[in-house]
Amino acid sequence: MKTWWKEAVVYQVYWRSFFDTNGDGYGDLEGVIEKLDYIEELGVDVIWLNPCYESPDFDNGYDISDYNSLMRKAGTMETWERLLSEVHKRGMKLIMDLVVNHTSNQHPWFLESSSSKDNPKRDYYIWKDPKNEKEPNNWRSYFAPSVWEYDERTSQYYMHSFAVEQPDLNWENAQVRQEIYKMMRFWLDKGIDGFRLDVINLLAKVEGFPSVENPNDINYLGNNPGIHDYLQEMNREVLQHYDIMTVGEIPFVTPEDGLLYVGEDRKELHTLFHFEVADDMPTWDMTRFKEIQARWYEGLKGKGTNSQFMNNHDHTRQVTRYGNDGEYRIESAKLLATMIHTLPGIPYVYQGEEIGMTGVHFDSIDDYNDIAMRNKYKEEVDKGSDPQEVFESLLMLSRDNSRTPIQWDDTDQAGFTTGTPWIKVNPNYKDINVKQALADPDSVFYYYKKLISIRKENPVMIYGDYKDFSEKDENLYVYTRSYEGITWLVILNHSDEKQVLSLGKGLDVAGKKLIIANYEDVTGEESIQRTALRPHEARIYQI
Ligand code: ISL
Ligand code: CA
């Protein structure tokens, strides 16, 4: 069934690093409004805005203390209303982040819940007695050695899947669920076009909270019995009453289990982000990537919709982590975009990816803000490891790699702020910035713009069957998408060397039509039956 969200390209705005209009060093919603023409120029359909609700900001807005008001550094509700109307005026849609596995420890609900054992809101959160005077079990948190934090006042532990400042809500409590559904309607009734649901598969905890064999393999935090009851209730009570898009962030999930969240007959969510690549593939592994793509294509085909991304605010910039951010940065950025936009699933563009921004390598832990990295650094150094070695080991996967300010031009602070940025600007902004990209017809930006525009006229990119012709090849990725008699052949050389491509019989490209290429000298006239593809070369033909 055709629907607007299946045909969408989504642009993720991490607003605090997007554009600062009041000189406080933080991007803000006014800044997003001022740059909407730039986003519209790309041709994207949906903007996903990271959390901007009231928050003490321990985890950059993912620790919410008031779901119904704006964090001051982001702007006022009036600013937000104007942003929504300006997005809609441009024919784009806005989806918001829904963070309901946990709140901030400064949320009024938690202040009440933690005040005493018989407070009416005690069961809004998960409280347990000590076991043998220690934590109730051996579960590890994403951001700390244990999910349990002891509270002296009531001599009990509360659970936090992330930082101590992010207590988990108790979804077994129907009152909590109704509070959340009411909040969701508050934003949907303002006219938003959907939600990105933060770690939505963690809402149901393992029955009885037993200790586990291997606490470091934290997949026991998610996909537990009961999660689908909650999501089907959320769909009945809220989601199905609006024409919206919902994308679930679902770590540790297999395609079979993923289908339970996004199957069209499931009446839960529309699509999902899964994390085998982002969380389990530290560096590029072509055959593993192809296996993951094949598994998810088979798992969802005809029943559910996948999403395609390789970086976001939690995962370092793809051209650095999975491509080549040096000699072949431009070609590599375009190749990765060609892949993400032609594999089955809704493509996501993370702000700055469209100009080939790269990860960073600051000098000291003090240059980094990410609570996940700083907590891990402290945990390892406190165990006696060498601080410099720990620091170096965390650099590549630090979430701050993708959180440095957008590089608008080559003036001071890359034109991001007139003040001191909350996190340093990547020193390569003089060469890599929006102003340069908009002035160069062969820039990564215009390549993204073309990829996004051809999607509008070619349903084969959205609905086409997928077939990989290169499973075993470490460097070449050759696949087709076919739909209503049209077949596109995608050819990618994901390596720093030339690779000889020899196409099998079934891929006869006589009379082919070149759709797009990331090397400007490709005309479509050349034979590709046997051809040498240059480093990080990408081409799409209609065959
Ligand atoms: O970055 C990761 C691990 O360090 C991811 O596994 C990430 O933590 C996980 O996917 C959950 O991410 C989401 O929830 C977190 C928040 O810090 C992230 O920014 C958000 O994307 C807690 O709300
Ligand atoms: Ca600001």
From TrEMBL:
CDD domains linked: AmyAc_SI_OligoGlu_DGase
Q: Please, which domain of life does this record's source organism belong to? A: Bacteria
Family annotation (Pfam families): Alpha-amylase
Per the record, the coiled-coil ranges are none
- What does the similarity note say? Belongs to the glycosyl hydrolase 13 family.
Give the EC number: 3.2.1.10
Q: Where is the Glycosyl hydrolase family 13 catalytic domain?
A: 12-403
What protein am I looking at? Answer: oligo-1,6-glucosidase
Q: Which organism is it from?
A: Halalkalibacter kiskunsagensis
What high-level taxonomic lineage is stated for the organism? Answer: Bacteria, Bacillati, Bacillota, Bacilli, Bacillales
What keywords appear on the UniProt entry?
Answer: Glycosidase, Hydrolase
Q: Which SUPFAM superfamilies match?
A: (Trans)glycosidases, Glycosyl hydrolase domain
Q: Does the keyword Transcription apply?
A: no
Catalysis performed (reactions): Hydrolysis of (1->6)-alpha-D-glucosidic linkages in some oligosaccharides produced from starch and glycogen by alpha-amylase, and in isomaltose
